[in-house]
What does this fold into?
Amino acid sequence: MNNVRGWWSENIDGGTEKQNDIFDYHYEDAHTAKIKLEEVVPNKRVVWHMLKNYFKFTKDTSELTDSRVIFDITTKGNQTQLTFTHQGLMPACECYDICQEAWTHYVQESLHDLITEGKGEPNPKEGGFNAELTEKWESQQ
It folds into this structure.
C-alpha cells in the first residue's frame, strides 16, 4: 500500500511510507488531494487522512476533505486479507459512484497485481483509468 506510485498514480509528490508523511496527488485539473499518513503499523494498518480534496466535477468541490482511507491487513491461516475502507465516502456523496468504481479498480486490480505480480497499473501522468472515469462522468452530466 505504501508504494502508492506503484498502484494508484504516478502523479504523487511527497513521502508515502512513514507515519506523518504528507503527499500530494493530482490528476490534471479534475482531482487533487493532500493526504497525510495518519497511522502506519507495518503489516497491520495504514490510514490516510484526506487533509484537502478537490473535485472539478462535483458541486461541492471539496467533497471527501477530512475523510480517511483505511487499509487493514489480517492473516487467515496462510493467507493475507486486505480490508479497504474509505470512511466518509457514502452513497449520499455526489462522487460516490465514480469513487467506488475507481477504488475498486485500484485496490482489487492494480494493488492486487503489485502485490502478487510485482507490477501494478497506476494511473500514468496523462490518460489511463482516470481519463476513462473523467470522460464517463462528463458524459453523464
The longest strand covers residues 31-41.
